[in-house]
Amino acid sequence: MSAANNNLLTLSGVHTHIGAYHILHGVDLSIPRGQLTMLLGRNGAGKTTTLRTIMGLWHASSGSVHFDARDITALETPQIAGLNIAYVPENMGIFADLTVKENMLLAARAAKRAQDMDDTRLQWIFSLFPAVEKFWNHPAGKLSGGQKQMLAVARAIVEPRELLIVDEPSKGLAPAIINNMIDAFAQLKKTGTTILLVEQNISFAKRLGDQVAVMDNGRVVHVGTMQELADNEELQHTLLGLAI
């Protein structure tokens, strides 16, 4: 398999404008199949805008986005999601007035009723996120922040996805819940799911990442293995202004 074919998602020279603001300045990014890629960078570097551009929530003003060799640059968000891509935004996007079960059912496109959902997969999700089972019939708005984050990820994987994109899954979470989240992503990796994570928690990134891309000022300025970045303090300081 060629290097190009080994990449599930490829951004080439992507520029994104939001109103008068030029946010992405020629992003080049390749996401290898079956790996977990960390997208790191200081606040305001363009990480969330990159994810939203991939999902068609904002459209690239130039450049291209290819998924599985298909040009998805101009597609609308529902079409992109229909290609078996799941996105967990930073604000989680939970429907507060619906129960946990109803939130999950909305994401299960193959199911019209709760009993139509794949029970084997649900039990696996419950093993990853026990709170989802515990609060199955509770309004999602009543959950704690950590429980909502678990629900957001559980909802994204209620059916097998080819690509999972998650924006800052550990933000504001207690260490015990962060460890639970790390375990869940590690299990997802074992299923062959390709994952793209934006993360500020560097220890989280270090424990999970295969590949890392670092953004600054709307561009990708470094690509390499997570291990390489974790082992190189000078590189960490140069790229991120911190030490892992």
Automatic annotation (TrEMBL):
Which Gene Ontology biological process is one annotated for this entry? L-amino acid transport
Specify whether ATP-binding is a keyword of the entry: yes
Question: What is the annotated signal peptide range for this record?
Answer: none
Q: Which residues cross the membrane?
A: none
Source organism per entry reads Rhodoferax saidenbachensis
> Mind listing the UniProt keywords for this protein, alphabetically?
Amino-acid transport, ATP-binding, Cell membrane, Membrane, Nucleotide-binding, Transport
Family that this chain belongs to: Belongs to the ABC transporter superfamily.
List, alphabetically, the Gene3D superfamilies matched: P-loop containing nucleotide triphosphate hydrolases
InterPro entries membership: AAA+_ATPase, ABC_transporter-like_ATP-bd, ABC_transporter-like_CS, BCAA_Transport_ATP-bd_LivF, P-loop_NTPase
Q: What is this protein called?
A: ABC transporter ATP-binding protein
Asked if the record carries the keyword Transport, the reply is: yes
Domain named ABC transporter: which ranges?
A: 9-242
What highest taxon heads this organism's lineage? Bacteria
What's one GO MF term for it? branched-chain amino acid transmembrane transporter activity
Q: Fetch the Pfam families from UniProt.
A: ABC_tran (PF00005)
